[in-house]
Amino acid sequence: MTAFVRNQWYVAAYGREVGRELLGRTVLGEPILLYRTEDGRTVAMSDRCVHRRFPLSQAPSRLTGDHVMCGYHGFTYGTDGVCVFVPGQQRIPRTARLKTYPVIEQDSFVWVWIGDHEPGDVVPPRAPWMDSPDYTVVSGMEPIDGDYGLLVDNLLDLSHETYLHGGYIGTPEVAQTPITTEVDDAAGIVHVSRHMDDAECPPFYAKSTGIETRITRWQDIEYHAPCLYLLHSRIAPVGAPGPGPDGSDPHAFHVEVVYGITPSTERTTYDFWAVARDFALGDEKVSEFLHTSNHTVVMQDVVALNALQKSLDTEKPGYQELSINIDTGGLAARRILARLAQAGADQPATVAR
């Protein structure tokens, strides 16, 4: 099992998911209730009533103004988590309050801080393409019945595209091309790059860009442990000029693939995925194609990772893995996650907000 990393920001939802309906999510084993106040502010608090632990996201619990009323016995809470009403008595127990969570809305995501102290000046990593007018985005979320570390491994070794995602994004060159890996241990960032100079154009890109020839295909991964994965993908016809000295790259198509990797429980993970493109902006047919195709790819990963988790659960203690060059990014991520988990566990606990 990959240990949880506390004292970090995690994606709990897309901004579009959070509204005046009560939404429940479980992050690092903590049940969290999300909703918006009447003036649009996002609130995150414990999703368990202090009375009998009824889930506040479960009907008939509901909002009355900005207050949350438990649908079981009517305990009612303000946006600060403090209970403002209990049935049958005037005195409200001092301990009748829910834990609340710091929230940041950034790049179309709702981030919550899971930790034993306040985040201070620590902010989530950026994915600015998610709400940039220069990009069109398709996105979704799929739950995985597996350890979040399995998804990290999956995304840092894209050679699996050749075998698992053939007919969508996989071609022989992905597995055949060596990678380079750079690790910034202090920042907790892993970079993995694979540049293919002459590759088959997979349907995912051929049908969305209109390229009918072979391509140069760059895959530059940037993993910000523990929670955010970025894949900078560059596609251009073979022979097209490369990026200019100033960074401009008008002869290529660019896709930014974003994953919010959120551990839910020890054996379940939220897989928030998005594909942002700088071409065919606003073209609904292209958007529909990319959404359908990427959802298929994500579901292929979900099926594989669910099966892998079941397999690992039956392994005897002490089983040995075999790792090769393609695993250098994933192994680096494991080391960083283990260090961050230990650092989070060593933090002194403080009183919950």
Task: Please describe what this structure looks like.
- The structure is a single chain.
- By secondary structure, the protein is an alpha+beta fold.
- It has two domains: 8-114, Rieske Iron-sulfur Protein; 128-342, Naphthalene 1,2-dioxygenase Alpha Subunit, Chain A, domain 1, CATH 3.90.380.
- Helices cover 21% and strands 32% of the residues.
- The protein contains six helices and 17 strands.
- It has helices at 148-156, 160-164, 172-176, 203-209, 284-313, 328-346; strands at residues 8-14, 23-27, 30-36, 42-46, 62-64, 67-69, 76-77, 83-85, 103-106, 109-114, 136-144, 180-184, 189-199, 215-224, 228-237, 253-265, 268-277.
- It has a seven-stranded antiparallel β-sheet with strand order 11-17-16-15-14-13-12.
- The model is unreliable at 348-353 (pLDDT under 50).
What's the short version?
With 353 residues, the protein is α+β, with helices and mostly antiparallel strands.
* Proportion of residues in helical segments: 10-25%
Helix/strand-derived category reads alpha+beta
Q: Tally the helices: what do you get?
A: 6
- In CATH, what is the class of the largest domain? Alpha Beta
The secondary-structure element order is EEEEEEEEEEEHHHEEHEEEEHH
Q: Considering the protein shown, what is the CATH homologous superfamily of the largest domain?
A: Naphthalene 1,2-dioxygenase Alpha Subunit, Chain A, domain 1
**Number of β-strand runs:** 17
What strand order characterises the main sheet? Answer: 11-17-16-15-14-13-12
Total domains, how many? 2
Report the mean per-residue pLDDT as an integer.
Answer: 96
- Largest sheet features: 7 strands, antiparallel
Radius of gyration: 22 Å
Q: Quote the CATH topology of the largest domain.
A: Naphthalene 1,2-dioxygenase Alpha Subunit, Chain A, domain 1
Low-confidence stretches: 348-353
N- to C-terminal separation?
A: 29 Å
Corresponding CATH architecture of the largest domain: Alpha-Beta Complex
* Shape descriptor: globular
